Amino acid sequence: MKAETLLPLLVLALAPLGARAADGARAPGGAVAVLDRDLGILRDGLARDPDAVTLRECDALAALKNRPDVLFLAYFSDRRTVRWFSDPALIAAPYRDFARRYGRPAGRLDRLFETKAVQASRTDGGTEDLLIPVLDGGRATGAVELEVLRVGTIPAAVPGDSRVRPSPKDDGERRHWINALVLSMAGRTSEALAEAPHDADCAGLRRRLAAA
Q1: Between the ranges 103-107, 113-117, 208-212, where is the mean pLDDT highest?
Q2: Average pLDDT of every residue of the chain
Q3: Which stretch of DSSP H or E encloses residue 167?
Q4: 137 and 30 Cβ atoms separated by less than 8 Å
């Protein structure tokens, strides 16, 4: 199953969400449409480097998280670990630790990888919480959790294509951030701490490395 076949899966999964979701589906665009467009980037990144998020994945997810209709965004690998999250201290953490901290059902990610289908629910605040598979052939290789104000329309994906283009400055800072993560995962703590940028996004990772 290709990533571009996500459209019918999403339509089926979101059907039970009720009138509010149906109204959202008639609205132009939306965060799910943006994710659908960039699923090829995530699929290719997972295939290229299963241990660390690639720069293109990081670009696409950072742009998605900055949308006003996105309330929460997390990205997981099929190893059941956090691949990308706004708190770098949780990157590479087991999903069970993430689920415990953020009140997610422990078996939800396993169900996605077993069914290769979207897991959808309504939050107490009336928003939509979606766990969306990243498909590569007949296998789910990753998953994105996306909490949105409204679902929006879902166009056909264009695998591997994206309008997200980082500036050279952003690209350089992001490379240092990813290098620090890779070094920390390899147990090279002092080198990782020296590599980690001194900015708000990397504060959690620096605290974890300093305490190691």
Answers
A1: 113-117
A2: 73
A3: none
A4: no
Burial status of residue 60 (CB atoms within 10 A of its CB: 0-12, 13-18, 19 or more): buried
* Distance separating alpha carbons of residues 39 and 73, to the nearest angstrom: 14
Q: CB neighbours of 76 closer than 8 A, spacing ≥ 6?
A: 82, 83, 95, 98, 109, 142, 143, 144, 145
Element (H, E) at 148: strand 139-148
Q: In what order do the strands lie in the sheet with 139-148?
A: 82-84, 70-77, 139-148, 128-136, 119-122
The pTM score is 0.61
Structure token pair of residue 33:
């449409």
Neighbours of 113 (CB within 10 A): 16
What separation in angstroms does the CA of 175 have from each of 37, 170, 179, 196? 24, 9, 6, 10
**DSSP helix/strand/coil, 136:** strand
Q: What residues does 143 pair with on adjacent strands?
A: 76, 133
Q: Where are the alpha helices (DSSP H) in 49-131?
A: 55-65, 95-102, 108-115
Calpha distance 23→208 (Å, rounded) = 43
SS3 category, 179: helix
CB–CB of 141/78 below 8 Å? yes
Coil vs helix vs strand at 205: helix
- Asked whether the beta carbons of 87 and 206 are under 8 A apart, the reply is no
